[in-house]
Fold:
Amino acid sequence: MEKHLLELKRVDVRYGDVQAVWDVSFHVNDGTIVALLGANGAGKTTLLKTISGILRPNQGEILFSGRSVVKLRPQEVVDIGISHVPEGRRLFTRLSVLENLELGAYPRKFRPFFEESLGRAYQLFPILKERSHQKAGLLSGGEQQMLAIARAIMARPALLMLDEPSLGLSPLLVKTMFELIRTLNDQKVTILLVEQNIHQALKIAHDGFVLKTGKVVMSGKGNELLANPEIQKAYMGTLG
Amino acid sequence: MLDILSFQLVSQLLINGILFGTMYGIAAIGLSLIYGTMRIIFLAQGTIIIFLAYICYWFFKLLGIDPYLSILLVVPVSLLLGMGFYQGLFREAAALEDKNISLLIAVGLMFLVENLMATMWSSNPRSIMTSYTAYGVSTLGLRVSFTRLMGFIMAVLSTIGVNLFLNKTLVGKAVKAASEDMEAAALVGISPHAVNGIAFAIGIGLAGTAGVALATTYSFDPYFGFIFALKAMIALALGGMGSVTGAFLGGILLGVLESVGSFVISGGWADAISYGVFLIVLMFKPEGLFVRSVKKA
Structure:
């Protein structure tokens, strides 16, 4: 039987009076890439923020390696092995590339491995090594996205959550980005990928879940969803 | 003759302005750090500076400790006080979306401390008289008092110290990162409470330095603090939020403006000039005079 690295059980999330996520259950198997799909406002970002401890679920359970994470604060979630690359990169633009990476390994637990983690990040993203002393705010969009991912893997996550990593990138860079995600996955990092680029996401994903107005409306193997006519009709035409 | 006189006069006005402006400068750096992570103007800053000036005063008066030696006590006490303020007063409010709560706590703290000082220590002005208080350094017909010069040196050293902390240490970089984006900082494992606490500790630590500089140079009373905080806020607006060196330079600029302005027009105009400049800067260059605006990508 496959091992569930992450499991959400009947999760509800409300922002004030507005409920953004309704009764969502899904799981991420260890070592896989899972795509979380859906249109704008479907609740994908809310779910990632809830997993990483920025938001609290009002109902339901989130288990990581069998352990509940719903009461953990964001820094504790990082500590147990979940890194979250937020939408829009959210780099520390006034700090240098290297300083951003240093802060990626900020928790005490990861500091002893800093050099090793830095070597790995530079190996995956050689351009960052060249740019290491540049201010992060001066990088190009693609470089910024690479830095955001590199910063997240400095904390040696077992689960990496990526929110719209291809947003705003040129088609060529989008392709590179998805190849990089696959490379990371080959290095035993489990990936939870939120994407609007549904076609590309499903091509690399083992499993996929489709959210619509805060509810899971479809799920299946990546290639099954890719071939599903309903998905084709609903999303590919407009977003693919 | 007239030329030399006016050269000396102008230089003297500039020097006085710069030396007094450094006080605004250190207060403004404190405001800048606390604003950075907390997103509030810590209006009690001036009053806390006065409080720490009193501490320095009492160390001198009651225990006979030299004010400059008392820095070794006042600064550690104020660092702890800053951490205590955060943990005791602001910790809960800091997590709220509505920053007005934190701001109101700061205002409440200001009035509480102000009134406590007035009740316990009376509202009579105090000043420290030492053997070197009247001592001055004279060159080229210009005179600089020793205590003001010491205040200036302390301010410059504090600014350098804070800059080194923010740019060279990992914790300092975490404070900078959190000042830019607290949520992103939390996602890499930086605790908001930790960076808020550190910002407060250093902000109030600087108030300790400013308190000693003030106590040794000027006479002060409990009610001077609020105006002082307003001036620091103006210095911050001049220098630009989020820049330590900018805040310091903003303080100096404000000091010079007040010094020159009150001579050229009249003494009573110093405050009016400050507030006028404050409004003009906010209207036309809200990011501050010393900040190159970097657009977010």
The first helix of chain A runs from residue 44 to 51. Residues 10 and 206 of chain A are 22 Å apart (CA to CA). Chain A has a mean pLDDT of 93. The two ends of chain A are 33 Å apart (CA to CA).
